[in-house]
Design a protein that fits this description.
Glucose Permease (Domain IIA); single chain; 12 strands; six-stranded antiparallel β-sheet; mainly beta
Length: 189
């Protein structure tokens, strides 16, 4: 089983707002086949250090979005404004394909990053724990947080596989799926 690290520094400001679909407190979706069944929302003030949960190669970077969709809606932006297009839902994004030695070709998504903060480029190899960006609230984000999920595959924005369950290691756990309310103790520095 592939081992993931929590995708951020050991910083007490990171928490968990939404976990997997089966978290009784607050989960994504309502069934394993929902679009984000195995996803995590980690709130943090803008600028938290986001790190690669697992090594691989960067296959997509979006780094130029400067808006938050919910704020645009509150401001009464017309419904035909192109910024409200669902393709901007993730805001600034990094996708990393897990294709190194022990890779299974799954793809991790790191969403809602701060504009201009992405520190990696398409094609670049990243190692587990490498700093890749800063947390933010771009796209369809309810507030500053990192949305993290792993997909079976990612061919294009319209051909992405289902999310898959992942287990993390941290300073206190070897193999665990966090739930809302758990203490997060990243083993990244």
């Amino acid at each position: 089983m592939a081992q993931y690290r929590l995708p951020f520094d050991n910083d007490s400001q990171w928490t968990l707002a939404n976990a997997n679909w089966d978290d009784p407190t607050s989960g994504h979706g309502d069934a394993p086949m929902s679009g984000q069944a195995y996803a995590f929302d980690f709130p943090h003030p803008k600028g938290g250090d986001v790190r690669a949960a697992r090594g691989g190669h960067v296959i997509l970077v979006v780094n130029d979005i400067d808006f938050n969709v919910p704020n645009l809606k509150k401001e009464g932006v017309p419904k035909d404004d192109p910024r409200l297009d669902p393709k901007f839902g993730g805001g600034n994004v990094v996708l990393i394909k897990h294709d190194l030695d022990d890779g299974d070709n799954t793809v991790a998504a790191y969403d809602h990053l701060t504009k201009g903060s992405v520190a990696v480029a398409v094609g670049q190899k990243v190692n587990q724990g490498d700093s890749i960006a800063k947390s933010g609230d771009t796209g369809n984000a309810y507030g500053p947080h990192l949305h993290f999920d792993v997909r079976e595959h990612w061919t294009s924005p319209t051909d992405l596989g289902p999310t898959v369950p992942v287990h993390f290691e941290d300073a206190n756990h070897k193999c665990w799926r966090p739930r809302v309310g758990d203490v997060l103790s990243s083993n990244n520095s």
